[in-house]
Predict the 3D structure of the following.
Amino acid sequence: MNIVHQYRTTGLLLLMGILGAFTPPALTGQNQDQPKPPATGIPAVGSIAISSERGGEILIDGVETGVQIKAMGAVTIPNVPSGATEIAVREPSGQITKAPQAVLIRAGETVQVVVKRPIPDDFVWIQGGTFIMGSPDTEPYREADEIPHQVTVRTFYMGKYEVSQQEYDAVMGGNPSLFKGADLPVEQVSWFDAVAYCNARSTKEGLTPAYNIQGEQVHWNPHADGYRLPTEAEWEYAARAGTTSPFSTGGDITTIQANYNGHYPYMPQSQGVYREKTTPVGSFAPNLFGLYDMHGNVNEWCWDWYGPYGTEPQDNPQGAPLGSFRVNRGGSWSSYAKYLRSAIRNYNMASYRYRNRGFRLVRSGGIS
């Protein structure tokens, strides 16, 4: 595929017939092995290998190329003149998404470019990776269903905070929470309430809803760019933030670091306060991924049906195919410290509503 780049014409002229006929000197043994310079007037070119979360026409330095790329697809464009180059994708709607920065094209080389969605406000880009999900036999207070196994998750966006009452009310037109406060996490929401909120907010913001909801039958479209609940694997990967200890804070956690029932600490010396209610989202220091309240405040609904893990390595698991209960994670303001561990699994009926249940949003990241 050849693309005419009128936007970068070199303007160089071919030298012709300088002062009439000219006979070059004979080549010596030393300069016979020297490579010939490129023909004057022909620009040096390279290639661009583009991966994109958006589908549409590729633009190079703002100029149409006629090259189409599918959402989550990839394409290579050859014969791009060397130099700093901006890449973008224009969707059929006219929306243009640019690569994060210009790339430098060098002669004879192929440059990799990724066109990603802009990171939503109050969301964190979580780079995918592989980790050990579950807990070792040596971890105090571990449960039998925390079988350690290798899991790989793909890149995704996760909300920095639990969904607040202000956010919930703005979309759903109501606030079911017991503890009232605009910046407090919404609670007393069922799993069904949470997925309904995801779809309603997606529609409001012009995104493709992640769920097809028919009564109590909910099907997830993993290719949709709308809001959704994290999988249990995504949640634990994000909560650990690269750690292997019981908590992202290390081998212990205190009520200075999270909101839980400090009368029942993880280690005896860490006894603290019991606030007996939720605290404003983001009240405590974030983990290494920049996520707040992954331990305590409210339990957070996940997508998965509750079921056994198994021991085989898993790639982007989405939980058991069927079940009776939906998973929630993280512990709450009323939990003992041992129920805040990164590996602990909790579950309830999808219709269950209680003052310690809330949720956090995720959006699929597409390209790692």
Observations:
- Helices lie at 165-172, 191-204, 232-240.
- Residues 6-16+43-115 form a domain with the Immunoglobulin-like fold (CATH 2.60.40.2890).
